[in-house]
Amino acid sequence: MAKAIYLINPACDFPTYFGAEVYAANGFPPVTLMADLAVVTLAAMAPSDFEVRLCDENISPVDFDCAPDWVGITGKITQWGHMRNIAREFRRRGKAVVIGGPYASLCPAVVRPYCDILVRGEVEDIAEELFSDLRGGGWKTEYVGSRPDLSHSPRPRWDLYPNDRALSGTVQTSRGCPFECEFCDVIQYLGRKQRHKPVEQVLGELDALYRIGHRFVFLADDNFTAYRGRAKELLAALRDWNSRHDKGEIGFATQVSIDAAKDEELLELCAEAGLTHVFIGIETPNEDSLRETRKHQNLRINLADQVQRFLDHGIAVTAGMIVGFDSDGPDIFDRQYEFAMSTPIPIFSLGALVAPAATPLHERMAGEGRLVSGGSEVAAAPWNTNIVPRQMTREQLLEGIQGLCNKLYQPSAFGERVLRFMAALGGRGGPRRAKAKRDPGGDLRTVDHDSLALLSKLERFGPQEQKMWSTITRELYKKPEPLGFVMGSLLQRMFLYVFHANAQ
Predict the structure, then answer these.
(1) Which residues make Cβ contacts (< 8 Å) with residue 124, sequence separation at least 6?
(2) Alpha carbon 18 to chain centroid distance?
(3) Which domains, from first to last, does the chain contain?
(4) How far apart are the first and last CA of the chain?
(5) 3-state secondary structure of 226
(6) What is the pTM of this model?
(7) Which of 24, 208, 272, 416 has the least CB density, counted as fewest CB within 10 Å?
């Protein structure tokens, strides 16, 4: 008799800079910014005699009445509250629960009481043993994975996923990061030696997403450009792959470090491949803070000038901003605001410095007696931290962040950055869209139409919003190329109302 497993990606514990709940609040079906890669990859590892069902809680609620043999839950620290509650409820109903993923790997002692089986580390090289034990009933209470060759990672089971409610598909091309930022837990979980998925394997996964209808894909790498030679090889392959599609190209987004701006050849290849959006951890213009946290790649450069180099090639930038480093005094909020307003970056993800478990920063803060019991370990949580700041009180830090967010996203300031972005954007301005031979399955998602309908409600927020909207749309008529970028930024700003309301 076939075994059944229910694989769940829990929702985040708090509103984020992409607030899917805003869709539901305005009468639209829920959506997710990026299709979840974890559950579909795990599904692909299940043997053919297992019945597999998926749930992405960002899109649909967990079905507690289903009757699988096993419930598998994966997630990051941002999802721990939901992970814990889901596990509790299924175990209350007598179901056996398996928990794995980043948080289970970094904080096994915390997760252990909530599951029957704990999976630590990456799962590819232990999947066969795990599923065999589940089938036979002789399972162990803990399995520990290694850091596998990514050629061992199977093609995800996107056929089981609700792709029509995802704004973008997802492909992972590498794991790990060679940098040593003190506050980052990537090294602890995935290692400093970056491992790369074979190029042909990446293209095969893109083929599958293209057939489903995705025309935008997030490359889920911790640092896509960390190894320039590999990045250039893959970008050339993506360029050639895209050029072969006469039903519209795919646009890409990913995460990079600011030092990529120094490499003109790399930026040219990014633009040619269809990379239209990057997230960069700029963190702070305070060089003392950058040295303190060992973010050496951001030092001794003009950060705003380097951002402009991406825009020169038609690549939009979203940036991470952190306050509360030991070198930050009470003036950091004004410094961050002045820096942000000098850039063509509409959206900054903003948070207090936090010390996630297993990071060097967590170890240092514990040694100095500066960890706050019950404080948040989640970067950009509204608004919290598990650190006692050095040059200001904790209250000054958290009130300062809230004030900075208010200033950054007031209509006049946000609108000014959007207009600067539109004026600064060069290059192709986005992936090529076919004018003929339209793929009848290529726009199966209605979520884009829902997003536009949601934006039409922007003016209801008041006269300042109306003025901002009117000014931006007037400029878009003159220069329509940045339309996709601008609409995305406006949508994210709408989500910030929910995000910020949660922080009051």
Answers:
(1) 45, 145, 148, 152, 153, 154
(2) 10
(3) 3-147 (3.40.50.280), 162-424 (3.20.20.70)
(4) 53
(5) coil
(6) 0.90
(7) 24
